[in-house]
Amino acid sequence: MQYVCDAPKGKTWFRIETEGEAMHESRLMGHTVEKYFRREREKAVQSWRPERPNAIERDIGLEAHVQREMPLFLTLRDREGNALTTAMLPPGGKDRGGFPIIIVAASNADPYPQQDAAIAALGAHFGLTLDRNRCFPYGR
Length: 140
Description:
By secondary structure, this protein is α+β, with helices and mostly antiparallel strands. The protein has helices at residues 19-29, 33-46, 62-69, 112-126, and strands spanning 2-7, 11-15, 72-77, 83-89, 102-104.
């Protein structure tokens, strides 16, 4: 996992970078972030167009491409490392109209009552408005 930003009350946001981390998050939180992670990673890999497709070096740059193209998967942790909230933001954390931002607590519960300040800190870090009405599944 990669550090992203601090949040109030000693909490920290981290980026989920590998399928193994996504699987662990799914187990800890009782939801399906790993399914979304796998699907989005595969879409990013499929969109890769190497400059020299037949050369042995064709996949140089693939991982950087995937990191740029796939949504950001994030986890909020407390001081003890307990998972509190999982988020999926647009690629690069940049607002893309119509991108379905997802922010959930354990078992897909609403994290806003307990984690509103931490979610606001994440939004401020990326320059995104992450109010409850915009984020799936609450804004339906």
